[in-house]
Amino acid sequence: MILEKLSGEKFTASEKQVVDFIQQYPRVVINLSLEELAAETFVSQASIIRLSKKLGAKGFADFKIQLAAELSTFAQDEKEIPVDIPIPEGCTTPDIARTFYNLSRQALDTTLHALDVIALQKAATLLAYADFIHLYGRGESLIVAEDFHYKLLRIGMHSQLETLNGFQEARSRIPNPRLKEAALVISQYCNSRQVHYVIDELMSAGIPFVLLTAAENPWPYNKYAAVTLRISCSESRYKMGSFASRTAMLFLLDCLYGEIFSRQYERNKDNLAAFSKRKTERDYYYTFLPEKPAEDLT
């Protein structure tokens, strides 16, 4: 872990200046740019990058993601909250509620601090101006995808989400040259055969896609994706549920939806108003069916 390595490794004098600052202000560091941290510690940017790699990260950006993830495992009372099984045996009802509250807060905090704004903007641009959006997700990722799908429908965006197993991998290989298509693939671990099949179909059809994942190294899919959005979450497959990852993914997709909405703000406001008007004015779902004739009591 990053925090443990900061206390256990041997560092040069310049590295020690940076380490001391990180240990004193860890939550400040995850919000600083490389240039800002270099200025605060009077150390070169190259030295900070070397230190990040020495601590096991790929670079300074990855270091901040890992640091934020570790900080997010601590509740306000500084006790670590395991993300797989967050509640201990014999936990009281108030403690259970407090634990899940803290777990959600920490997931949001981590995701916000590690947010790649440029990647988010690129993903929004790709989806906002597409004529048709394909959405993919399995298991708990499917639930997250359905929430995002409904939001797109509310503002009149043409999108499709197949919920039946097997149908997501089946699509026409004949692309429509007049249709500008894009896709969003949501997969926490990014290691299933279904994800491989879906991405293979998208690549074959020449459809650019956004990949949303928690995998640290989603190779080779991140090489094929037009944009990769990553949440930092260490949940394993032996978890009680996707508490932290679900919160993080929903938050990131809400940010993506907000960015898409803002691209054509007035039009989306009008579409949303029209959608709401149709729902409020509808007395019943079967608007176009004839009324039931009155019973003849004679």
3D architecture notes:
There is one protein chain. By secondary structure, the protein is of the alpha/beta class. The chain has two domains: 112 residues, Arc Repressor Mutant, subunit A (Orthogonal Bundle); 163 residues, Glucose-6-phosphate isomerase like protein, domain 1 (Rossmann fold), CATH 3.40.50.10490. Helix content is 52%, strand content 8%. It contains 13 helices and five strands. The protein has a five-stranded parallel beta sheet with strand order 2-1-3-4-5, with helices on both faces. Helix 9 links the parallel strand 1 and strand 2. It is globular and about 85 Å long. The chain starts with a helix and ends in a 17-residue tail after the last helix. The mean pLDDT is 87.
Keywords:
298 residues; 13 helices; 2 domains; alpha/beta; Arc Repressor Mutant, subunit A; 5-stranded parallel beta sheet; Rossmann fold
Which architecture of the largest domain per CATH? 3-Layer(aba) Sandwich
The CATH H-level homologous superfamily of the largest domain: Glucose-6-phosphate isomerase like protein, domain 1
The average pLDDT is 87
What is the CATH top level name of the largest domain? Alpha Beta
Strand content: 5-15%
Query: What's the quaternary structure here?
Result: single chain
For the largest sheet, list the strands in their spatial order.
Answer: 2-1-3-4-5
Q: Which sequence of SSEs, written as H and E, runs from N to C?
A: HHHHHHHHEHEEHEHEHH
